[in-house]
Amino acid sequence: MENQREIFEKPIELSFPLPLAPETEVRVHLTIRAKYILLHLTTTSIGDTSVLPPLGSFVYALPDRINTTQTISTPLCQNEYSIDLTTRLAKIFARKLQKPVYVGNSISFASAGMGGTSEEEIEGLKMIVGTVMKEIDSHESSA
């Protein structure tokens, strides 16, 4: 019966502004299952929902059962502009959660204050990981 409840549980949808670009929102679509996590990320300009983001990258990552500090990942769909961040996010979540993770990502830092520098990307990555982990922790503690 527990699996039946899990099948019908709705995904969690979140949005929050990028740390160094408050006019750009990160949109999160998070599905939490007992055996895996499915996470989709994209960015939109606040107030402008008419522009559809391009298809990004999709990566599968799972923890290494022998060495828990390592992860294994494989890209399922690649976009040269988003594959590095997508792989990094998938590996971080697989290592932290110790379960397989699917991450789809079409985030763009181009509209950030300095045009998408590595500092802006790192700040965005930290905020995404912190926000998603907080949501997963609260979901697991209430289950």
Automatic annotation (TrEMBL):
<dbReference type="Pfam" id="PF16093">
    <property type="entry name" value="PAC4"/>
</dbReference>
<dbReference type="GO" id="GO:0043248">
    <property type="term" value="P:proteasome assembly"/>
</dbReference>
<dbReference type="InterPro" id="IPR032157">
    <property type="entry name" value="PAC4"/>
</dbReference>
<protein>
    <submittedName>
        <fullName>BgTH12-02817</fullName>
    </submittedName>
</protein>
